[in-house]
């Protein structure tokens, strides 16, 4: 056993605290901002002392934004729902398509399989702006512009390669003989996929789904161009706070807090899957 | 005797045919119902590849495989009705040992009571009853190996393939289980192929041994026959412990004597009458031969050829003496404590009836003692 001397332990603690402060500070500041009015946020010098207010959250939830120019309708809750719906549906479809494909790529080494898998991955290399213009035109002609279906389709560019490549790695880590043992015991190929491969890759699939969800949730460009107000997710909807009469920092902050809350909660909840997923190697041998 | 498994001209290439790794070369083999066959060979000789083709995990590059009258080499594993214990155990990590063993029985829709009884029986036989409710990751390698073996043996399949099923076990347990497993297989009339590189295991368990090397089936015969009449130089030197002594020699016949010229200027002379006629003719015709003699057939004798002791090991029940001889070394086994010291000059005798003669060019056996091969 390694014995840690007290000084080293203290230094380590300090270092970790600094790192955590550095990364958490912006988030903490935003949380603080979300409970302040524009006046207290913008005062000079800034201060952490203020009387908290929940009017930012109220405005977001009721959908009525009071500005000096009058009352503005905002669709924040609708945006939040859109984000939720688009991300969930995209990941669900991504899993349905991607997991069996990942299994095929992992287990069946057919001619050109590497090329196909790599082509799918290469979608992640292309900058979205490159495909946006042609995509917009196609979508308008096909009537897919500003539909959930169209957006979910485009979101597959984000989630499918991610799921495919992560899950494929997990499938490859399962020793083929474990599956052979099941097949020779009188089970079909499909049953083996469901009963052996899927459960063993489960933590990996969960990890991939989580990452894909976060990527889909954070997407901005596709949604900005391809969706109008009623289909927009929060990432785009937040632009509404940049109004003619000024930027509503308090509401933006509250919007950010509300929009990161789901992914944050999901990440915390799924942490154990991620850890389990990473220790899948224990299955080997 | 009905043929249960038949391999006809079976080849395995990893990669494209004729270009890839040629792991199994033109294997022909008929295995009878109820037989236990040992597939014996050094690491990498193609034993596992052969099993995997029979099981259906690797496709058969060429040739046909027939099991219980059905051509199976193009069927998926699920349709072959073969049970297998894997070299790497390959237990399902998410379920207990008990469920691992019961999986195939449940898939075959056996009644629950019967499943439980079969699992208990095989677990008792393999001494794993105490770990039945543990998970594979929480038990030792030896226990995993027995669980994997149990999973194969519990089934009532047309063929049982056991890939080095006892490699991880301690010697005592291995000896005990050898007997029990053999009894279990015989009692049920199962047909089994046991892959091993342990010749003691092969001798103890198998009705016939298939010796493989370099992807080629070298000999397929009973343990006695393989020992008494090895088909070629490889089998002769591979099977037997300590290994057979071999010496290249040139044969000439002159003045009623057979001369065997060994290396180091050693000339062994035998009266022609000591060899049977056909053996003498075959040796003379071949001229360049390799002489093989088992260590326990080499005796010290005053009439023998000179040798000098280089090692003397008393193993508790027998002595292994190594001596420099004919430009090489010779090993002899004596069943008593031998009072010889290093450097001591001894004389060793090779009797014609103990000689295995191989053709030097082809390595094929010409004769064993007085019999032609
Ligand atoms: N999947 C594979 N791809 C390429 N070569 C292989 C593969 N499996 C085995 N081999 C080669 O085939 C030969 C026989 O291997 P194997 O059947 O595993 O031998 P054994 O079980 O007798 O040790 C070896 O040379 C090995 O390297
Ligand atoms: Mg092997």
Structure description:
- The complex is a heterodimer of chains A (285) and B (373).
- Helices cover 71% and strands 4% of the residues of chain A.
- Chain A is mainly alpha-helical and 285 residues long.
- Chain A has two domains: 6-73; 76-283, MetI-like fold (Orthogonal Bundle), CATH 1.10.3720.10.
- In chain A, helix 1 (6-33) crosses helix 12 (249-278), helix 5 (113-122) packs across helix 7 (148-173) and helix 8 crosses helix 9 (189-218).
- The longest helix of chain A has 32 residues, at 76-107.
- Chain B has 373 residues and is of the alpha+beta class.
- The radius of gyration of chain B is 24 Å and the shape is elongated.
- Chain B folds into two domains: 3-229, 3-Layer(aba) Sandwich (Rossmann fold); 245-372, Beta Barrel (OB fold (Dihydrolipoamide Acetyltransferase, E2P)), CATH 2.40.50.
- Chain B has helices spanning 47-55, 97-107, 112-125, 141-153, 171-188, 199-205, 223-228, 233-238, 277-286; strands at 3-14, 21-32, 36-40, 62-67, 70-71, 82-85, 159-163, 192-196, 208-213, 216-221, 245-254, 257-262, 267-271, 288-293, 299-314, 319-325, 328-334, 345-349, 356-359, 365-368, 371-372.
- Chains A and B meet through helix 8 and helix 9 of A and strand 6 and helix 2 of B.
- Magnesium ion binds at residues 47-48, 87 of chain B.
């Amino acid at each position: 056993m390694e014995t840690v001397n007290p000084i080293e332990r203290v230094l380590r603690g300090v270092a970790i605290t600094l790192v955590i402060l550095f990364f958490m500070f912006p988030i903490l500041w935003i949380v603080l901002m979300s409970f302040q009015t524009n006046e207290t946020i913008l005062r000079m010098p800034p201060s952490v002392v203020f009387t908290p207010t929940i009017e930012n959250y109220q405005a977001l939830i009721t959908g009525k934004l009071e500005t000096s120019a009058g009352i503005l309708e905002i669709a924040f809750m609708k945006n939040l729902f859109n984000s939720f719906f688009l991300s969930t549906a995209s990941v669900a479809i991504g899993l349905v398509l991607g997991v069996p494909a990942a299994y095929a790529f992992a287990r069946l080494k057919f001619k050109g399989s590497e090329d196909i898998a790599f082509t799918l991955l290469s979608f992640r290399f292309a900058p979205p702006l490159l495909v946006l213009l042609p995509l917009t035109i196609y979508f308008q002609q096909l009537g897919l512009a500003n539909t959930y279906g169209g957006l979910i389709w485009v979101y597959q560019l984000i989630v499918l390669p991610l799921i495919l490549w992560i899950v494929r790695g997990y499938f490859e880590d399962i020793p083929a003989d474990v599956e052979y043992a099941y097949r020779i015991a009188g089970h079909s190929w499909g049953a083996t996929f469901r009963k052996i491969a899927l459960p063993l890759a489960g933590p990996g699939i969960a990890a991939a789904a989580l990452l894909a969800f976060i990527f889909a949730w954070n997407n901005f460009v596709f949604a900005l161009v391809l969706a109008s107000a009623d289909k927009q997710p929060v990432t785009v909807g937040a632009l509404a706070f940049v109004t003619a009469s000024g930027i509503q920092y308090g509401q933006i902050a509250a919007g950010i807090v509300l929009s990161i809350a789901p992914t944050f909660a999901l990440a915390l909840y799924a942490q154990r899957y991620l850890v389990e997923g990473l220790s899948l190697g224990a299955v080997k041998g | 005797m009905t043929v249960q498994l038949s391999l006809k001209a079976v080849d395995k290439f990893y990669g494209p045919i004729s270009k890839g790794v040629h792991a199994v070369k033109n294997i022909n083999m008929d295995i009878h119902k109820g037989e236990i066959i040992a597939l014996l060979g050094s690491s990498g000789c193609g034993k596992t590849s052969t099993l995997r083709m029979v099981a259906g995990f690797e496709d058969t590059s060429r040739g046909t495989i027939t099991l219980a009258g059905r051509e199976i080499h193009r069927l998926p594993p699920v349709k072959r009705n073969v049970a297998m214990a894997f070299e790497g155990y390959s237990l399902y990590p998410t379920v207990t040992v008990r469920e691992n063993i019961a999986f195939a029985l449940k898939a075959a829709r056996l009644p629950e009571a019967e499943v439980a009884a079969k699992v208990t029986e095989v677990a008792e036989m393999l001494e794993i009853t105490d770990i039945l409710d543990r998970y594979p990751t929480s038990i030792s390698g030896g226990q995993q190996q027995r669980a994997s073996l149990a999973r194969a043996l519990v089934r009532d399949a047309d063929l049982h393939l056991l890939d080095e099923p006892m490699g991880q076990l301690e010697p005592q347990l291995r000896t005990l289980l050898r007997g029990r497993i053999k009894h279990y297989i015989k009692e049920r009339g199962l047909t089994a192929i046991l892959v091993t590189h342990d010749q003691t295991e092969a001798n103890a368990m198998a009705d016939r041994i298939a010796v493989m090397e370099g992807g080629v089936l070298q000999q397929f015969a009973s343990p006695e026959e393989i020992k008494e009449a090895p088909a070629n130089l490889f089998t002769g030197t591979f099977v037997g412990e300590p290994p057979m002594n071999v010496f290249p020699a040139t044969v000439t016949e002159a003045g009623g004597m057979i001369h065997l010229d060994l290396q180091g200027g050693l000339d062994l002379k035998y009266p022609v009458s000591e060899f049977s006629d056909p053996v003498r003719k075959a040796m003379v015709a071949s001229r360049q031969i390799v002489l093989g003699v088992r260590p326990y057939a080499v005796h010290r004798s005053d009439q023998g050829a000179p040798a000098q002791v280089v090692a003397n090991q008393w193993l508790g029940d027998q002595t292994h003496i190594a001596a420099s001889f004919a430009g090489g070394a010779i090993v002899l086994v004596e069943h008593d404590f031998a009072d010889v010291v290093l450097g001591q000059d001894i004389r060793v005798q090779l009797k014609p009836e103990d000689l295995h003669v191989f053709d030097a060019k082809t390595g094929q056996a010409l004769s064993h003692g007085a019999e032609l091969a």
